[in-house]
Amino acid sequence: MSDDLSPAAQFAAAAAAEADAKASAEAAAAAVSTVDHVSAFPSVSASVIGVALATASAAKPVFAAVPAANADDSVGTAVAHDNASERPAPAPASSDDALESPSASAVADAVAGLSVNPDPSTSTPVDAAAADSAPVSSSSFGSAARHNADDSYVSAAAAFESAIDSAVASTFGDSEDAYAEDVPRRANAAPAQAAHRPKANKPIDFADEELFPSLSSTAPPRVAPSAWGSKAGSVAGGSSGAVRGPQSMADQIKLSQTTEIVDLPMMQEPISDIACKIMERTKTRIEISHNRVLNTSTYLISGKPDNVAKAKREVCSKLSPRITKIVQVPAFVRAQVVGVRGKTLQKIQTQTGTSITITRASASVTKDPNEDDLFDLIDISIIGDNMGVLSAIAQIEAITNKRTTKRAVQLTDIPREAYALLVGKNGETLNVFQLAHPQIQIRIPSPIAADQTICIAGEREEVNAAAADLRSAAHTLMENSQVVKVSIPKRQHRFIIGENGQTLIDIINATGCSVLVPPPRSPSDQVTVRGPESSLVQTLGLVMTKANSAILETVDPTTVHQYGRPLLYAQRALQYFHDRDRFRRIESEHGVTLRVPSAADAAAASAPEQVQIELQGKDSRSVAAAREALVALFGAFPPYHFNSIEVEPHLHALLSGRDGANAARLQAARSVYALFPGDSISRNILVVYEGFNPDIDRVADAAGRERATRELLRKTLEEFRTTIQNDDSYVTHVAKVPAKLQQSLAKASALDGLLRAAGAADADNRVVVRFGGVLAGQNEPESTRTTRKGDAELDEDEVEVKGLASAVDNVIVELSKRVKADEEYVRLHSFRGEVTVPQQLMPRIIGRGGENIKRIRSERDVAIDIADGTSSGAPGVVKLQGTREDVAAVIVQLEEFVERMADQTSEIVSVPANIHKALIGVGGRYVKRLEDKYAVRVQFPSSKREASDEEQGSAPALNPDQIRIRGGQKGVEGAKSELLELAAYEVEHSHTARFKVPAASLPHIVGKSGTHINEIKDESETKIELGTPNNGEVEVTIVGTRAGVKLAREAIEAVVAEQKSQIDVMLSIPVKHHRFLIGSGGNRVRELVQQAGGNPDAMSGSDACRVQFPRASENTDDVRLKGDRAIVEAVRKSIEELVAERERMTTTTVQIPVSQHAFIIGRGGSQLKQLQDTHSVEIHFRSKSSRVQTDATGDRAEDPSTVRITGLPENCESCKSALLALVRDETRMAVPLALHQRLGGRGGSLWRRVRSEFDVQVDAAHVDKIPARRIDEKGDMDNATEDIVYRDAESSLSELKAEWILRGEKAKLSKAVDLINNEISKAGTTVEAHVRIESRLHRFVIGKQGANIAKIRDTTGCEVNVPKRDSSSQWIVITGGRTGADRAIEMIHEYIEERD
What we know:
1396 residues, alpha+beta, four-stranded antiparallel β-sheet, extended
């Protein structure tokens, strides 16, 4: 017997070779049942089944009727080999060619593979492959065995059962005697006698944990009824029928064996050698099966748990192809993924065997520091085998979930053409999508942001749903859109885009179409327009309009002149023209815009296209003129007008002179302009002949002028060289400066400070400093390079200074001061000290991101170096260097901290997990305040922050409802007390109610801009979340106190009930009645709503009723009523009644003299309004303006005295009678103007008396005008010496009259006329008294708000006129009777005397 087989396998093989036909025939049914049901018994040992199948395959004709199961693509097992033909198989004792058939081995291994699947409802890739590739599956095999009488199936089943029996007996130590007694009996029995087996045999229970121990540490599997019990009963028992318990061998197998299944992508290269080496190193057994349909490999690893784990890791690492996955997480979790000093990231890489790279977080836009920007994402690249990558992703996701439950997703699979379509016309499409997902933030990039993608953020589930909807919407929009491409010259693309893409955004908003403009670096000139077919024409029109909104031309300076080095000429010319501001002059003269390369861009240009000048204008004429002017400008300066020389920057001031005096002199004398660089690095000096030198201008031929110009420039440059060589005021000195100090001095700010301190910062005293200890390009651009053409090499501790001798000396002195100061600083800060700190306190010493160390360094100017303990648990050492005082202070500070931390304690508080988020607060606000207040650290199970090293190493993991508080004893107690109080408050305020409301009521619940829902939240002090509409309903979640939740729910349900009572009614009212129903300023419609019990100002609610009339331009009869049912019905009834009345109305007229219209209307229309209200009619008088307009045009119109009355017939008649009753008789009479002034007018005493005694209305029909004369005019009164002067007022008014109209009853009119005539006869002579009163006293005569002067007029019946405030006159004029005038004078003096 081969030594390669285990004892159990050898024993099983021997027993199988001796099995008789009778036992084999009966065991066939059991084998079939085994194949069908083996997956239901996860407790069956895989190794036992494997050995049994290996033994059963010894009989060659076993699988004769079964196809080869696709030998090339079979699910056959191999022991560290790639195909079945290469697999070594243990030879059974009874035959030398036992396992020669690959098909037999394949089917046996497939059945063995089924036995290790713990869940019969699921299938591994191996199972799936077997089902797809093999013509006969496990179930079909069982069916064939039951219904086919072919002998090969019987033999196979018998061999299978015999092998099972033998393996079980060998593994579990069955009685040898019983088995030996059974073997010859089974060998000699005939197949037909299989039913007469001994009844003493006890059936084997395959669900028995003792007989068939599990290979893993999982919970005991469920026991299912077995079909094997009645058919394999005689296998385990002998004549005694007793089954002994497991012996030591079974116990060892049960405790030490396990099996793992690993599915990996199929490797292309051979893997057998690698698998064998893994088996040797890990002492495990590895079986491999391939599925070329799914392109996967399945590895079955068996052995001790530790070895299996090690082998699994090596298999995943070495037999899986390396893959790369990129995971996007919010940037604010980067610190948690990396961990303290990268420990978390290093741990993930070690555990998963992957390489992880994290991109730097992008610069976030300004935002609230307490809020996390979900759109700010970072990419985490993970490289490794498939399982390692998946494990690393899972760990990173777990860390992210602790930090936030929200996610942001970039939808890179949505094409850019769909972005504008998703936004829609004026953002309509995006708004609809946002309403469907209110909890989701959506960010669609600008059309010009080519490197950005659509990003959505929110809760994970909602983000996934929104992403799916957005992708679906994008797909639908793309399918329903048309594409048009148009070629537009590249230079016109910027007009389509506009400044910052605004023009492109305007086109998209106006049309809703997508417009894609190729990027500037793309050679394509095609603009793509995509959108609905109905909008494409409009979009193309806008695109072409914008593209052609300006005329463009270009000028290439390299083609203006024939020159061997055209690019050099263009660079020189552009540099000179920029300096002389020549381009701006062309722009202002021709009204165009020039896009000219800058001098720096031109200097860096390598091709003629990079120095071209573009002209842009609104009309072709101005652009053409500007182009001619530009070409003429370049034509006036041919290449020989330019030359240059390289000079050390520090010598530029020597050549230009103080304040540019030398350069100005050169320009004036020779018309040569010297252009010096504006920085302290460039050496090139450009000289330009500007064309106004008489010596050159007099040369007739062009060749001669060119030679003369070249000679002039050559002579100028030669003089520059001579000046430099003969000058001894510019020197070069080298100073010794330590290289470390040079690193700080070479920085731009430090170098500028050095030069300013030395007085060498201005242009006249400019110096050049080179640092030998600074690498080329390392220092800022303001400092020069370390080496340059013509420069000597400097040692590391040397600094070279070039420039004016006095400036160089000052810089050297300043450098010496800096060197001495640095040496003194080093001497003072050379004191060293160290502090020993327990290893677990090191993270607290360092602080988050090293903040504590940075703070100590900034406060004490101390260098700090931290050395961790060399061994685990060894104390760390904090090394300090600085001044003695600072080092001593830091040592005391650190020792106090260590002493304080010795009092540290930790306590765990149990708080329901659902309120942890509320205890933490937004951005950790609450927990940070608690930590600062009590000097403790509070850790939650789902903490957003990484636990410190000592917490990770020593503290046990927290349960979901636990919170750990670490710190000083008193601080922990205080924090615990406050935390529990806050938790009790949150529990009280965490009552939750969920219910559904109709989606149609959602806008009314929310209110405009969320006002209503916010009011409910404030009043009930609850949190309210509204879900998304689903099947016409919206789920509402309310969180708060029990009373608050009840109050909020009642308020929301009241809105829902209220909306159910709301109706929308449309009435058909003729347009002619709309104005009447609305009323003046909407008063009538408001009254209708009020009368119906509604509130005309309410837009919604139980008392709302909105009446909407169409606009005059709409010309429709529809009137809409919307609001509460009862109120709407009442208003509807009132409107219909009013309309019915209006239909019955008629119009009648009455003739009333125009002169009495005003009287009938009354003051402010009071009498007219009373008549209309009393009779329920409308009365229309012709306005004065309409009468005047009719007279002016000459058109015939109705009589001005006609008054129209509109209303019900009976009301019109009663109103007509009332109007006629108001019409009065009238008479006219003339009175002296003096009397009119004294007694007439609306405030006159005579008019009031006539009105009160006779009910006669008096009006002035005409009043003669008196000659205009100001009462404060200077006249003969200036010469008067008396203070009171009397004059006869009637002498100037004797011929002037006033005509009065008297209206009233005929009998009373005569009495009123008699009274007026009597007053005229009684009236005496009218005098005009002039009283001199100082101007400053006039205000006392007038009195407060004119009270005094009004009293004087009423008492005396005289007219009193006081000069205006800005007048210089002192005379007060009193007009009236002599007695009244005297009394008025007395009253004036009385008021003046009483002023105090």
